[in-house]
Design brief:
The chain is mainly alpha-helical and 147 residues long. It is globular, with a radius of gyration of 16 Å. The chain has one domain. A two-stranded antiparallel ribbon has the order 1-2.
Length: 147
């Protein structure tokens, strides 16, 4: 199993805002920014633990867990799609960043963002694994063995 350090996620996402702006996405109050804040707190907390041997309260477990998952997923999405056509990836990513911060606050009317994030995260895993992946509407397409 591959492990990823908090600092590696933060390093990958350091150019996040520039990429989002280049895609026409200007908000910094979306789920990914919330997730990055959680990773920043976790990174500081782990540093403090190593230095002082005293644990740090990072936040509520529900925010912490989903924040880490979303930041890790978005790190993969960023690495996989940062060079894709902004006209294609931009609208899909904007949808992915919509919706409530926590899954517990979702309803059938506002779950599209997290569903789209799952789709992009899955596509990113496939692309980072070497598959030929294209993002479109409404779905992704994967070409394997010429099919």
């Amino acid at each position: 199993m591959k492990t990823t350090k908090f600092s590696e996620i933060l390093e990958t996402l350091k150019n996040l805002d520039g990429w989002l702006v280049s895609l026409g996405i200007k908000s910094n109050t979306d789920r990914i920014h919330h997730a990055v804040e959680i990773v920043e707190k976790a990174n500081k907390g782990w540093k403090k633990l190593r230095e002082s041997n005293e644990p740090t309260k990072i936040g509520h477990v529900h925010d912490y867990y989903f924040g880490l998952v979303e930041a890790l997923e978005f790190s993969d999405i960023f690495r996989a799609f940062e060079k894709d056509d902004p006209k294609v990836i931009g609208p899909k990513l904007e949808r992915a960043l919509s919706g409530p911060l926590r899954p517990a606050d979702e309803t059938t009317k506002n779950a599209d963002g997290r569903n789209t994030m799952f789709e992009l995260a899955f596509a990113a895993q496939l692309r980072l694994g070497g598959a030929e992946v294209s993002v479109g509407e409404p779905d992704i397409a994967v070409t394997l063995s010429g099919r």
